[in-house]
Amino acid sequence: MNALKFFTALICTLCFIVTPAHAQKKILINSASRLMLFYDDDKKLAVYHLGLGKVETPTPTGYYKISSKEINPPWIDPSDPEYEVPSGPDNPLGYRWMQFSGNYGIHGTNRPESIGGYVSNGCIRMNERDVEELFDAVEIGTPVEINYNRVVVEKSPEGDVVYYIYPDGYGMQDITVADVTKWLEPFGVLPFESEYNISQKIEASDGEPTFVGKPYNVEVNGQIAQPTDANNTRFFAKAVLRDGISYMPVVPIAKILRLKLEWNKTESSLKSRYGKVVCYERKGQIYCNADDAPILFNMEGGLQSNADGSKIFRFKSLPAVEQPPVTETPKPEKKNDKPKPVIPNREVNAPFSDKPAEPTPEKVSEPEKVSEPEEKLPPADASKLEEASA
């Protein structure tokens, strides 16, 4: 009996360990966009349009939870608690009510034309069909987060990064180009949106999506490329698909391979010991076309799928190709000639450099001195030597 209890407890414990945690549903509301996002964990289930509080009675921001739910709620006039409207077509709350803080709640409306505006006393209005759908999906205790963000950057399920700038309905949030830049930077696509475009987007503040690019991770020899600091610049590590071109971040890749690159700013080209390709400079970032990456880095691969269905640029180095030695036809030797010294190739210590190489001065060899042969005289006649000495 004790053994049976032991194994029963063990099985229950194992079931508890392997059972995945229940995904938590949550409600996110942005008062600037007047939109509600309904999530199940990190999965977006629905997007709903809202009617929010007037400028004089704004919808409060903060973190809350659904505290009560009611079908066919009566409406009580806040200015006259004695006045009550029963459920029906004349009820401003519609047919569903979800309280999240004091007198504030999420409810339906008998004025569907008010959805999308700042129209209420602080409560959150929804179209009747939407609020009934939400009512059935949430439980008491479901988290509710309300914020006011005019700048929204999101990544679609297809991987596209887009951003929105909404009007300042409550007149409480001024934004600058620098603010939008900070929102875009973590996505790795900042070099593909100019400051001018951002300023124009701020001026419009129309809430329309602006496509920036589709970023991908880059893996080289099993290592994921990371942002790299070089030449007083922070280089992003994401490959970005834009306008039909796959832009590869050359500096983080070169760091993984410990490869030195030579940057020619005039030609907009990069050269390695494997080859030379045309590159793109965007806001100080250097990219090459994914089709040219094998030439520059001596590797093979491309865009591939992970087990979870996500995409990644995956490459693997190829064996280094030894350059064959150059065989020159021997020249006839000249007595006074010496071989000229070999000028070594310039090494670039930084990941890339746009400074021209300084030529190594050539040492001029002095002509070899040739000693003149001594003149051999016949043996001197002894009598002549005596005459010369007399």
Summarize the structure.
The strands form 4 sheets. Strands 13, 14, 15, 16, 19, 20, 21, 22, 23, 24, 25 and 26 form a 12-stranded mixed sheet that branches. Strands 1, 2, 3, 4, 5, 8, 9, 10, 11 and 12 form a 10-stranded mixed sheet that branches. The radius of gyration is 39 Å and the shape is elongated.
Number of domains: 2
Q: How does the overall form come out from the CA principal axes?
A: elongated
Give a quick account of the main beta sheet: strands, pairing sense, barrel closure: 12 strands, mixed
Q: How many beta strands in the DSSP annotation? A: 26
Radius of gyration: 39 Å
Question: Quick check: average pLDDT?
Answer: 84
What percent of the residues sit in helical stretches (DSSP H or I)?
10-25%
Low-confidence stretches: 1-21, 342-350, 353-358, 363-390
Question: What is the percentage of strand-forming residues?
Answer: 25-35%
Provide an overview of this structure.
The longest helix is centred in the first third of the chain and has 17 residues, at 2-18. The protein folds into 2 domains: 25-148, Beta Barrel (L,D-transpeptidase catalytic domain-like), CATH 2.40.440; 152-317, no CATH class. A hairpin with a 5-residue loop joins strand 25 and strand 26. The chain has helices at 2-18, 128-137, 177-184, 195-204, 250-257, 293-297, 382-389, and strands at 25-30, 35-40, 43-53, 62-65, 68-71, 75-76, 84-85, 96-101, 104-107, 118-120, 124-126, 143-147, 151-155, 161-165, 210-220, 223-224, 228-230, 233-235, 239-242, 245-249, 262-264, 269-271, 276-282, 285-289, 299-305, 311-317. It has 7 helices and 26 strands. It has 390 residues and is of the alpha+beta class. The strands form 4 sheets. Strands 13, 14, 15, 16, 19, 20, 21, 22, 23, 24, 25 and 26 form a 12-stranded mixed β-sheet that branches. Strands 1, 2, 3, 4, 5, 8, 9, 10, 11 and 12 form a 10-stranded mixed β-sheet that branches.
